[in-house]
Amino acid sequence: MQLIIQPSFGNPAAKRHWRETLDTKVVIASPPYVDELSGGELHDILELHPTGSANFWGATANQDKHMATVRRGDVVLFTGENHIRGIGEVGYSFHNAEFANCLWEPDPIKGPYLNVYSLLSFRPVLIPYQELRDALGKPDSRDNFMGLRIIHDERVDAVFDSLGITTQTADRAETERLLETAQELARDLGRNDLLPVEASHTSETSYQQAEREIVVS
Question: Most buried residue, 2, 86, 159, 172, by most Cβ within 10 Å?
Fold first, then answer.
């Protein structure tokens, strides 16, 4: 899982894009958006966003190399004016200039924001840069996070812990792991006739993780 630091609130164009696709969800299956999606793209987006609407963000072609690494479950910190302004989780990431042009007016120099991604979740926040600097191990830095950057080392966990970030994708993976463990236990109980009372009468268990109770039936 990667951490994407995305400048998104520092100039009038970015603020306009914020209003267009972060303050407001896009109704994916309505014109003109649906007209610019291939059948596969529409299917994959709606599979992740069954309500038919989602928040979106994008980057221009000069960020192709970075954006090619973006995957579902990556976390985005939307930054601007000395604060983290929003936290999102990447859903569907794809390359589509025509769809991007329906969302945002192209940059007059850099062109369309054709590296598009939806957000599985998004919440506005207002967190001073210093908290992010501290989490990244640069407490005395004057780094104002001016350019797009992608972090994929041990600092990701440090930022998640510091800012209290959890993701749907990580929770889903943990649930699947627990289900596999439960299935293995059930097979063992069936083979060895162990713990007959619990095997007959216990239908769920729970454990604590990151101050959240996870219940597994």
Answer: 86
Which pLDDT value is given to residue 217?
A: 45
Longest dimension (CA), the chain: 71
Helix (DSSP H) and strand (DSSP E) numbers for the chain: 8, 9
Distance between CA atoms of residues 194 and 200, nearest Å:
11
Separation between Cα atoms, residue 195 and residue 170, nearest integer Å: 31
Contact 71, 90 (CB under 8 A): yes
CA 79 to each of CA 117, 125, 201: distance values in angstroms, whole numbers, following the listed order: 17, 10, 51
Task: List the chain residues with pLDDT less than 50.
Answer: 207, 209-211, 217
- Whole-model pTM? 0.79
Q: Which residue has the tokens 């329906």?
A: 102
* The pair of three-digit structure tokens given for residue 53, joined into one six-digit string: 């609407």
Name the residue with tokens 């969302």: 103
C-alpha closest to that of 155 among 126, 130, 133: 133
Residues 6+ apart with CB under 8 A from 149: 4, 5, 66
Q: Are 38 and 186 in contact (CB under 8 A)?
A: no
Tokens of 135: 């989490």
